[in-house]
User: Fold this.
Amino acid sequence: MRRDQRGYSLITTLLVITVFLLLGLTIVTTAVEHAQFTTVRVDDVQSLHEAKTDVNEAVADLKAELSDPNFLVRHRIFAPDQWDQFLGLGSSSPGEDTIAGRLRDRYGVIMEDESEQYDIPKNQVFLRALRLTKTFNDGHRTRTVKRLVFVTNTPSFLKYALGSKETVVLNGGVYVENGNVYTGQNAYASNATNYVKANGQLTVNSSNAGMPLLSSSSIWYTNDGQLNACGQTTGCWEASQGRFRMKTNWAPRWPTDVPEPAPTIRQENEDFIDVDFDLTVADKLLQASGILPPSSDYIERIAGDKNSQLHTLVAELSNQWTSIQSNQPDPNDPRKTLEEVIKEQSKTKPLYLDGNSVLRGDVDIQNSGVNQWLIVNGDLRLDGPTNPSTFVSVRGNFIVLGDLTLTGNLRLDASIYVTGSTKIYQSRIERALNNKGVVLLSKGPLDISRINEFNNPTIPTPNLKGYFYTDSSATIYAVGSYLYIEGGLFARGNGATAPDTDINGLVVNAFRGQVNGENGEPDRFTPGSDPLSSRLVVRYRPEMLVEQGTGLPFVNRISLVVDRLEVE
Assistant:
């Protein structure tokens, strides 16, 4: 009997040992597999990190290579084909003396030209769309890290949704839906509601307009990384001596009793690539005349013309253009409108209007689908219809040696240079049916007012599409008006103060919510919390660097516009 008990005990002991042995083996096997998985996972993460690092370093290397302020002249690059050779484009095996070859050898990053996908006229402009890529293996498949870079010789202001080389003041609930803000000097933000009545009375309303709001991806770049703010509505400004003047309730910190979060503030460390307005207009006059950049003589001639009067240059070049009488379109048929005469003209050469002009119908200044130039030696008024469902289409490039007025409903595919002031009022400006927009540069003040006045849309849609620049200062009112800019707005500030203020730069006045009209004046302010209920929304569009390539302002250095990094 005892032997049987001992036998049973032995069997039980062996079973227990076997069970624990199996459990131990299972734990060891699981631990080994987990360790192997962790090792593979760590390797995968490291491979991804290394690929991202290499692409980002390649972008930084490219930026450093092109940072010379006199880049094009120093490298003897005066024509687009010379630019492609320097970059190493169009070759399956670029040499080590090209940009593409160096990035491949240093970082294993491949640089491909995607300019044709964006319809960039490579034989006319220096703009290029470059895709930088590097492949890696994540343990299961081959993947690619890539980044799109636009390389262009255009000024820095085109990279921002809002900004000024001097001071930027954002009063009220302006919403930057996409893009960054740039301030070369001082930056200010408040929840004040400032506007001007029809009789010219400056008004500081007690309604809370909301603090400026930037999207989570947007950054406010300032000269010193500081932002001054005021959250006391009527305690921020006063109307005194015909101007809005700041009170003392401003502090270098975001108010703690407002619902809007403080924007991301960073100090701008990159050089600001400025534009010389007169030099740029002279450049465009020569470009319009077919004087392309085949040699260094091109740059030298532009520089030589910089200090001369533009009207003198126009007089010298006008015999190469097709002249049209602006005050008497067609002596043989007085029933023809100026727009009809322009339509019938050959567009192989620029068109020239000598005198003040008004255009009320469709204007198409294109040659084989490429924008041609219309040069106006005087003031120009583009006067569209006011019927909300009817638009006038304007296609072409314009140089206006005077003032410009835009009013009514306009669809624009254009680059416009104005040596005087620019006024946009009672207007709705959209992109042309080909989905291109407008780049408008004015040397004098830019005045935008009465756009969709007292409109409170339930579905916000852009109603001012393009990029608007003034070499001077600007004040924008979006309290009674409703502005949804798809593009950007920049007031360089050239010493003159913004209208109705003593600020040199850009001053924006906006309200977040609904505003109704009473006898033509803003009334019944209803604040809103939805960012898109702002009466000034700005959505930056980098595509304008592509759409108006031949008409963009020229500078003698190269800059980069970098898109987000992607992994496929």
